[in-house]
């Protein structure tokens, strides 16, 4: 008798005994759009804090476009990783392991978001020269986040469906 615990050796009804959430997180069954949107929103929350902080600091100090964007991207990655790191540490994972999970879960998602939202800011005429009191500064920044969310959600769906990205985080909840 085979006592293997692999899902491929269990009858179909036994694969779902842990409930619909466990089945939904099984990378062989694919990821739902809801899961992908939730993962993207979680990632975007940290990225947005860092991005806004970096843009506000660089703009208020009258830095040039390149250093301002570099600071914003750096802080977006730092805050994006920090939100996941905090969640998995609260779930009981050690700091070193939690850091590895955050890197695995968020790197691609953050990179896609940063390429999209900074690309939009760079392409909107006058956005990089706008001041904090200009509506163009805020509309291009927030519009970039909205487009980044729409572009990144399918990327996260694809990754979660293959057991990567935020699927790594869900293994620790």
Verbal overview:
With 173 residues, the chain is an all-alpha fold. It has helices at 20-25, 33-60, 65-90, 95-123, 135-161, 166-170. Helix 2 (33-60) packs across helix 3 and helix 2 (33-60) crosses helix 4. The longest helix is centred in the middle third of the chain and has 29 residues, at 95-123. The two termini are 32 Å apart. The relative contact order is 0.15.
Topology record:
Layout: H1 20-25, H2 33-60, H3 65-90, H4 95-123, H5 135-161, H6 166-170
Helix pairs in contact: 2-3, 2-4, 2-5, 3-4, 4-5
Quaternary structure classification: single chain
Question: What is the strand tally?
Answer: 0
Rg (CA only): 19 Å
**Tell me about the biggest sheet?**
none
How do the helices and strands follow one another from N- to C-terminus?
A: HHHHHH
What global shape is seen?
globular
Q: Ranges with pLDDT <50 over ≥5 residues?
A: 1-28
Name a few traits of the molecule.
single chain, 173 residues, mainly alpha, 6 helices
Write a short abstract of this structure:
By secondary structure, the chain is mostly helical. The protein is 70% helix and 0% strand.
